[in-house]
Amino acid sequence: MPLTLEGIAKLAGVSRSTVSRVINDHPSVRAEVRGHVQQIIRETNYQPHAAARSLVTHRTHIISVIIPESVTKLFTDPFFPLLLYGITATSNAHHYDLMLSLFNGPGEEGETYRRIIGSGNLDGVIVASAHLTDAVFLRLLQDKIPFVVVGRYPDESVNCVDVDNIGGARMAVEHLIGLGHTRIATLTGPLTMTHGADRLSGYRLAMAAHQLPVTDDLIFHGDYTESSGMTGAKQLLAASPTAIFVASDVMAIGALKTLREAGLRIPQDIALVGFDDVSIAAAVEPALTTVRQPIIRLGATATELLLSLLASRPAAGAAAQRIILPTELVVRQSCGAAGMIPGTSL
Amino acid sequence: MPLTLEGIAKLAGVSRSTVSRVINDHPSVRAEVRGHVQQIIRETNYQPHAAARSLVTHRTHIISVIIPESVTKLFTDPFFPLLLYGITATSNAHHYDLMLSLFNGPGEEGETYRRIIGSGNLDGVIVASAHLTDAVFLRLLQDKIPFVVVGRYPDESVNCVDVDNIGGARMAVEHLIGLGHTRIATLTGPLTMTHGADRLSGYRLAMAAHQLPVTDDLIFHGDYTESSGMTGAKQLLAASPTAIFVASDVMAIGALKTLREAGLRIPQDIALVGFDDVSIAAAVEPALTTVRQPIIRLGATATELLLSLLASRPAAGAAAQRIILPTELVVRQSCGAAGMIPGTSL
DNA sequence: GAAACGCATGGGAGCGCTCCCATGCGTGTT
DNA sequence: AACACGCATGGGAGCGCTCCCATGCGTTTC
Question: B157 or A52, which is more confident?
Fold first, then answer.
């Protein structure tokens, strides 16, 4: 029952080689023969054995997503599911299969890495991580596995795709400045992560561009959690800002609660801008003005970059690509630019 | 540089077969020889070529998760990420690799299915879907691929793992009854999905067990979305219930908003119980009483079941297993049982 | 002390493919 | 008319493993 190339060849009255040529679209097969073989393949529902094939071609048509992130963060955040969707859809469209590897514990990492990479099962890897310190990068580089990083990575030789965190943050803060704010505070993410650091840079750039002073009391270092948004907002109030740029929506929602409890009206007393545009951002009261990042496109672009790498088999040491996708300011109520009546300026 | 079995054999001064025996833990290798070979393997960082191996063993040590769900639902819902985590962690722990397949469009399904399954790349499959009509089941059955369904599946011959939706719903409703409610309405999920139907069954069982009448105006058929929670609550108010059992937290939050707008206090004027225990459930005001399902364990259990299937290679037609995991009632404020001060009964 | 057995080890075959080279045929060249 | 050449096709080799069988040796048995 397990049909092989040879079997199809016998059925079609040709040789194994000819069937192989048909399957691999080799030009030198007579159209008539090709048609006949294709029909037999269709009728028998034959499909070449992947292992046998990759044993000789050294290609598996499988790529892997490696997520070395700690578990909790991973699954609270709507970021990864969307990224994963972008990646899957794209790899499927290109007839590649997708393997998913989470490195859960630090202990697991070495063993899992070896199993995943060492067995020759993979054509390439997408690394979704913001931690620059992860050992994975070094190992992949050393093992000469083609890979693409989602996020910014400082090493010039690494291919990466990121969203424009700096530009997005800058845009958000300049929007606040445009509304007349001058005392603008910021609630940052962890600066050990590129997006955390970048969003702060964007804030600084915008302030500097308009000669607005940035004092230490205008900056609170959070960690993207709602509770850090709450404590951050409380602390920032001491500097009596008229607006706060918050580096994530989840933190912004924490801030919102605290500010409300303090008796402040948003946006009349204090304006708020978030980052991410998670689904709750539009649902809270008042709806959150925020910076939207194209997460699905991020995954799709990373996948496309990886696949193009695989297709061209570039000489090692070739210039790596880095792609930055634009972010977009979504103006809702919390910044005070739009009116409280959706769709109008009132 | 690509090290092979033969290479290791030469380095160790033994034969290819002996090295193979060491790798596969075959007993008949002298302890001394075994140790020596193992050391060489460690030193050289050798790893057997997966494709070559599976060409002869017909095993790949790869399992796949197939999610035939439509995209939107998939990635709004925190269910899938958690499920995926349970699956990955477990398969990793058992040294299995995980492939992820989303069937996005109906058109894509056939082609993707063929690519995934037909190539012999997979040892087994976990299907995460609640739609009984999906063609995947039939194809998997027909192709004799070992698989496990996450969710209840009526066919006796199918292995499946589910959470106790009926019991959970029943528990929730009985809790409300215990608090003195008699006019209890319900806001259901889509009844084409087993969990939607099961949660309604649980409601009916609880009501019947206490001789409480269930009239049509006490039931609204929603679709798990927040907006259907809003319209559902509005409509159910006509029956003036004193409590509503809502089949999902997201819908419950929609209902919450509508009820508030109608001037009702929760839980004083109307009690509310949700289902799922998503992370926002604890964050809303008042915190939502809800039924928690062990999603990570669900994924882990499904994976373990599949792996045990693979290990035992049961005769086709052997009795399938169905495992039901218990759900748990999480009592918070919205039902009126706990007081408004967390941690106390006031 | 010879036959019988057990265990550790080596080498051949073959899994299902792709690739290369050899073959055969039709066409174009001189 | 003889040759070279191109293209379509067939078959051998081999990818890196596992499995089976053959071999050789030490130990038991009567």
Answer: A52
